[in-house]
Amino acid sequence: MNMELSRRTFLKTSGAGIAGTTLGAFGFSEAEAAVAAAVKPFHLVNTTEARNTCTYCSVACGIIIYSKGDLRKGEKADIVHIEGDADHPTNRGTLCPKGSALRDIVKSQTRLTQPMLRKAGSDKFEAVSWDVALDKIARAMKDDRDANFVATNADGVTVNRWLTTGFLAASATTNETAFATYKVVRSTGILAFDNQARV
Amino acid sequence: MTNAWTDIKNTDLVVIMGGNAAEAHPCGFKWVTEAKATRGAKLIVVDPRYNRSAAVADFYAPIRQGSDIAFLMGLINYCISHDKVQWDYVKPFTNATFVVREGYAYQDGLFTGYDESKRDYVRDTWEYEIGPDGYAVVDETLQNPRCVWNLLKEHVAIYMPDMVERICGTPKDAFLKVAEMVGECSTPTKTMTSMYALGWTQHSKGAQNIRGMAMLQLILGNIGVRGGGMNALRGHSNIQGLTDLGLMSNLIPGYLNIPTQKEPDFTTYMSTRAFKPLRPNQTSYWQNYRKFFVSFMKSMYGSAATKENDWAYSYLPKLDVASYDVLRVFEMMKQGKVNLYFCQGFNPLQAFPDKGKLAAGLAKLKMLVIMDPLQTETARFWEDHGTFNKVNPADIQTEVIQLPTTCFAEDEGSLVNSGRWLQWHWPGGSPPGEAKTDIWIMAQIHLRLKELYKKEGGTFPDPIVNLNWSYKDPGEPTPEELAREMNGSVLVDVFDPADPTKKVLEAGKQLSGFGQMRDDGTTAGGCWIFSGCWTEAGNMMARRDNSDPGDAGMFLKWSFAWPANRRILYNRASCDLDGKPWDPSRKLIEWDGTKWTGYDVPDIPPTAKPRDVGPFIMNPEGTSRLWVRKMMRDGPFPVHYEPFESPVANVIAPKVRGNPVARVFPDDWKTFADIGDPAYPYAGTSYRLTEHFHYWTKNNHVNSVLQPEQFVEISEELAKEKGIALGGWVRVWSKRGELYAKAVVTKRIKPMTIDGKTVHIVGVPIHWGFVGAARKGFTANTLTPFVGDANIETPEFKAFMVNIEPSTGPVVA
Question: Most exposed: A1, A105, A133, B765, by fewest CB within 10 Å?
Answer without folding.
Answer: A1
